[in-house]
Write a structure and sequence with these properties.
By secondary structure, this protein is an alpha/beta fold. It is built from eleven helices and 13 strands. The strands form four sheets. It has a five-stranded mixed beta sheet, with helices on both faces. The chain has a four-stranded mixed beta sheet with strand order 8-13-12-11, with helices on both faces. The structure holds oxa(dethia)-CoA.
């Protein structure tokens, strides 16, 4: 790669890890006052995967990252930045999960840090990777989205426990001079006015760990579900329309629209607003639930492994989450197609 020519960021590879244990809607019927029918109709979710008790966010991130590095045709020594999007880190808040992942992968003396943008984390990570690469500071950035959401879910609260799952996804973003491989655009934004829509009240400086925190269950995620739902549909639709218009690409030219997997009704509403055909829209929410920052890379991995995503094909990513945060990205898949 020449450094005298313009340098672009390119999406070179994808990997993911799905934990073994399955929590089905039928399992949840035995735990809270809910039904498979209600969950399926309102969310499209049939099952989600949960990490084992001794399996941590970093362990899942490492498994996804190993695949991504190998599939990029690289080794750990080639990675010069490790970033991990998570709101369920191994530790609140030191050391970062990115540092633990780096150590487990044998990546040493390389910048590594976490960032919290909830479900928007992975696409936020792509914007960070793009900036580092295009400024010439880094060449191969490992972007990880990993969550053990089950660690902050109250399994007696039917309004949240039916939604979330665990998992990880990772991508290698590399420098290239080939404009055809380059990210077309990434847009990331936030509005803290809606901070109370999705909150984990503790632990933090507002609510340090105490008996009161435990008695009131403040360590668990709380969500204003219906309000979040409405805002998600509105924001995702607007965001995606803007990025397509800005880059003069009509929605029918997108082979892979990969939205955040929170609720099938949200995905369908946004897809319909964009006049997308069913085969353009990637859906994994039925089998993984909402895995927050891992949701989009797990979905990309699914279509790559199944042979649906091929080298050079355009991906449109769109996500929304706590903060509130949202982000979209328009980029070709610059890695090799899966060998099948
Ligand atoms: O990833 C970050 C972004 N997150 C999201 O985008 C999530 C957005 N929100 C949602 O996906 C939906 O709002 C939910 C799936 C969480 C809830 O669906 P909803 O259609 O918005 O239902 P609701 O909260 O308005 O509740 C309707 C009814 C209520 O009963 P009443 O008050 O009408 O008698 C709830 O108590 O459904 C009840 N309900 C349930 N019933 C059976 C809530 N949860 C359940 C449940 N099983 N699990």
């Amino acid at each position: 790669m020449s450094t005298t020519q313009p340098v672009y960021a390119s999406f070179k590879s994808i990997g993911a890890y799905v934990p073994e244990k399955i929590l089905s809607n039928e399992d949840l019927e035995k735990m809270v006052d809910t039904s498979d029918e209600w969950i399926t109709k309102r969310t499209g979710i049939k099952e989600r995967h949960l990490a084992a008790d001794d399996e941590y966010t970093s362990d899942m991130g490492v498994k996804a990252a190993k695949l991504a590095i190998e599939r990029a045709g690289l080794t750990s020594e080639d990675i010069d930045l490790v970033i991990c999007a998570t709101v369920t880190p191994d530790y609140f808040n030191m050391p970062s999960t990115a540092c633990i992942i780096s150590e487990k992968l044998g990546i040493r003396n390389v910048q590594a840090f976490d960032f919290a943008a909830a479900c928007s984390g992975f696409v936020y990570g792509l914007s960070v990777a793009k900036a580092f690469i295009e400024s010439g500071m880094k060449k191969n950035v490992l972007v990880i989205g990993a969550e053990k959401f089950s660690s902050i879910v109250d399994y007696t609260d039917r309004s949240t426990c039916i939604l979330f799952g665990d998992g990880a996804g990772a991508a290698v973003i590399s420098a290239t001079n080939n404009k055809k491989e380059a990210f077309i655009d990434v847009h990331a934004s936030a509005d803290g006015a809606y901070a109370d829509f999705l909150v984990t009240p503790a632990p933090g400086t507002v609510n340090p760990v105490s008996q009161k925190v435990l008695d009131e269950g403040l360590q668990y995620v709380q969500m204003k579900g219906n309000e979040t739902f409405k805002l998600a549909v509105k924001t995702l639709t607007k965001d995606v329309k803007e990025i397509l218009k800005k880059n003069d690409i009509p929605s029918e030219e997108i082979p892979h629209f990969i939205p955040h997997q929170a609720n099938y009704r949200i995905i369908k509403a946004v897809g319909d607003a964009l006049k997308m055909q069913e085969e353009q829209v990637v859906v994994t929410v039925h089998k993984y639930g909402n895995t927050s920052a891992a949701s989009i890379p797990m979905a990309i991995n699914d279509i790559w492994e199944s042979g649906r995503l091929k080298q050079g094909e355009l991906m449109l990513l769109d996500t929304f989450g706590g903060g509130l945060t949202w982000a979209s990205a328009l980029l070709p898949f610059a890695g090799e197609s899966a060998q099948r």
